[in-house]
Amino acid sequence: MAPSELYERHRATLESAVEAIRGRHYWSPYPESPSPKVYGEGAAAAGEAAFQAYLGKDFPLDQVGADDRIITERSPYGLPLGVGYPRAGADELIAASAAAGRSWARTDPDERAGVCLEILDRINKRSFEMAHAVQHTSGQAFVMAFQAGGPHAQERGLEAVAYAHDMITGYGRTVRWEKPQRRGEPLVMEKRFRAVPRGIGLVIGCNTFPTWNAYPAVFADLATGNTVIVKPHPNAVLPLAITAAVAREVLAENGHDPDTVLLAAERAEDRIAADLALRPEVRIVDFTGSTEFGDWLEANARQAAVFTEKAGVNAVVVDSTDAYRAMLGNLAFSLSLYSGQMCTTPQNIFVPREGIDTDEGRKTAEEFGADLAGAVTRLLSDPAKATGFLGAIANRGVLDRLSGAAALGEPVLEPAEVVHPDYAEATVRTPAVVRLEADRRDVYGREHFGPISFLIGTAGTEESLRLLRETVAERGALTASVYSTSPEVLEAAEEAAADAGVNLSENLTGQVFVNQSAAFSDYHGTGANPAATSSLTDPAFIAGRFSFIQSRRHA
Amino acid sequence: MAPSELYERHRATLESAVEAIRGRHYWSPYPESPSPKVYGEGAAAAGEAAFQAYLGKDFPLDQVGADDRIITERSPYGLPLGVGYPRAGADELIAASAAAGRSWARTDPDERAGVCLEILDRINKRSFEMAHAVQHTSGQAFVMAFQAGGPHAQERGLEAVAYAHDMITGYGRTVRWEKPQRRGEPLVMEKRFRAVPRGIGLVIGCNTFPTWNAYPAVFADLATGNTVIVKPHPNAVLPLAITAAVAREVLAENGHDPDTVLLAAERAEDRIAADLALRPEVRIVDFTGSTEFGDWLEANARQAAVFTEKAGVNAVVVDSTDAYRAMLGNLAFSLSLYSGQMCTTPQNIFVPREGIDTDEGRKTAEEFGADLAGAVTRLLSDPAKATGFLGAIANRGVLDRLSGAAALGEPVLEPAEVVHPDYAEATVRTPAVVRLEADRRDVYGREHFGPISFLIGTAGTEESLRLLRETVAERGALTASVYSTSPEVLEAAEEAAADAGVNLSENLTGQVFVNQSAAFSDYHGTGANPAATSSLTDPAFIAGRFSFIQSRRHA
């Protein structure tokens, strides 16, 4: 097979990525700063223009279903997007994907990695366009949409390619096997090994992080030789439509079947995800969303390897601190960022009823609650600044839960409406904090997705850690954090987190937040609790997507 | 943590094992030759004496259930073994295993690997004892029992340790993560990563390869920090009882809880495997056996990662050969070895009705069948030699299927009884070969475990390959092989095998047989067809047994 030009072009990047996943050190190939110095003087304007050009038109995607267009999105900032997407049936999608799979499965792993990196590189160059698309589908504020929907998502995609390529090429592709014999010549066999994909990968996207949560699966599937059908959330199609369009362009330019990547847009009531997930040709399903549908997929899509990220009850244990103001500031930002609509936002804050020791003296649980509420209020006091990280409420469900939050306990902080300076119709809300006692596990023991957190009074840190362990083991979590000045408590928290199977952040007071994870270094999820079947990304996220198959003959 | 003495002792072996799994070259740390030159002058006699000493007594295993003894084995060679094993209830087993898990999970991965290698090393030194135990439970002939039940099984165990240790230690355990900031000092975080096990691993053994099929799971579980409950087949307890005893001895000597490995012997009607498999504490299940129970486990043990090896329809496509006699000899041996009671024995031999080209001229399908029957008959003409690789029929089910084989089609070779020169009561049979047409997929499309093979007349090699592809994709297979002098046919066979997800042997004529695979180089199973969920051993066999869990704090 001819050496892959695309692979050679991106080889250094891939090698650095593999080094980074193994070393877990800081590394960032796609700059997160939306600065003209990084992305070029005209990049911001060009990106916005490209986004505007999509509005009210058929999205330029020439694939099955292109004759039947559907419009399903409306921006949480109030804009009717009016973009028409191809709507194809399951049969058409499966047939086209399976046809593309015959050659993609046989494409050299280096070339597949090269194609993936070229796609990511082109998407990276369009990060401003993507930022607008993500902002106006997820409701994320612009800078967050740029970072989380752009470079950070791209890095999570590259990370998956690095794992996949490393795992596939880390084992010999051919070997001359020579077994000595007691008498005479050795037995000699020529053996060939290839990584054979499972088939079609179905990637079911979510409303809030359309690219970030989909890219690891999309690129893991592609790099391991599977074709991909991307089923976006009906509220957040544009970011994945752009992704599919770029992928198809790169595939076609390089002599591959563009149907290796297909978009499966649908009306909310179509339920095409469930149809596709049960098709025998679909051998991998990746899903981010509700526990209900995730569990259904795991129970029913038995012909497929199913990877899910579902609901969880993220926990914070507050024991003591030597940086009270910084702790409050860090927590306030974590609760406010994207109005708590992150699967990583803390929900349950466990605090001893008796209070905590701080550098500002002992604080009762009531004082801590009031101080946290004050920190959030101060953080959000200027609507222009506040909307810069609050973003907008993504959907009706979040809004409804927020309205009901106060009734769940004793309000510590009431949510408020914020008028967005640029988008009068945007639905913007500040977070709610509700006080509960430890015995109200019926309330805090399940996820309340959105800007709703609970301040839970406990008998002490031992009980806090026990509740962290139990609630996370039972309902899952993507994040946990602890504040303590005691090495013993930190050690106990690490043990509790390991037992519950959740990653732990300790004493975050600066510009690192529990709801954020860095690609190549931080694991997102663990696979060790009910919130996710594996990490983005770890070996388990990759290994089930292909099999090694060998042939052997006498030499 | 103090450096692990056991790890240092076995480090060179482990490093060579990791090199071998990555390079796939020949490597063998445990010699397969039962020669006094290798294992020592007194080894054979000592091993036999050790085996004899078990008979008619309580097996020396001090664990839960030791007060309640059961006897369930009878040698296929006629000896009543009369060994009493502890019989514990699921609750006792789970409680003891979970208690041991608390410290084993926290044991350093190097120490865990060291413990595994010490266990394997001691088992290796007792290979003669193990050979007798395997012979008199599985029915394998002595030399095969020595090799497959001893060194080959040990190597498969070591292989799993190599994968596990490599996967766990291939990623940084700690890192100082430094993110440059536009202004000022970098953000610096200290991060720690650990591989956290899932919990208790249940390993359900089989009758025919009690150690070979169990060791990969047992050692993969142990090396990834899980505790193990070994549930042997009631007909084949002794080999796994010896294994558990050695493991517990090594664990205890090195300050670990011996209950890290427990034996769950049962009466056939106890169905303790099903009980244990559904317990929430059991987070990994490995099973070798019937498709029925394997499917049940996959559908019902939802709390666990389930790895199964089930039935399959192994295929041989005969197209042409330039070594007719050698091909017949190789096939005859593959059909006869252990009376076809290997999950890797060829079942379906596809031959064009019109015949095949050979170095002895064109042979019709009828001639080929007669010549194959002749080759088997010649191979088995001397009962003393024949019983040396036929072994004995392991159980009633195999015997019943063999009795009914002739009625399935047109007999090409009738099975015969053989009187074993040493064991008058041994049930020894020669293989049956039955001729069928390609349209009798109702017969050859399912597994007939035992010495039963079908000679299937096809319209040509194209149809043969199509049937290989279809039957393997539908019902699974652990092996496939092809005979052809045509590079195009070999290429097409490789494509068919890759599509069907089965490993392929090509033109085997010498001392390599399709039913044998070499540890560190050959994959056993693929995970890409219904016969197995993954290979012994590939990354997918390991990755689901642990999760990486991290903690991070400001530096």
List the helices and strands and how they pair.
The structure is a homodimer of 555-residue chains.
Chain A: H1 5-23, H2 36-39, H3 43-54, E1 69-70, E2 85-86, H4 90-104, H5 109-125, H6 127-138, H7 142-149, H8 151-169, E3 174-179, E4 187-197, E5 200-204, H9 215-223, E6 227-231, H10 238-253, E7 261-263, H11 272-277, E8 282-288, H12 291-300, E9 305-309, E10 315-318, H13 324-336, E11 348-352, E12 356-358, E13 361-363, H14 365-379, H15 383-390, H16 396-405, E14 410-413, E15 417-418, E16 428-429, E17 432-437, H17 441-444, E18 452-458, H18 461-475, E19 480-483, H19 487-500, E20 504-506, H20 539-543, E21 546-554
Parallel strand pairs in A: 5-6, 5-8, 6-7, 8-9, 10-11, 10-19, 11-18, 17-18, 19-20
Antiparallel strand pairs in A: 1-2, 3-4, 4-21, 12-13, 14-17, 15-16
Helix pairs in contact in A: 1-5, 1-8, 3-6, 5-8, 5-10, 6-7, 7-8, 8-9, 13-14, 18-19
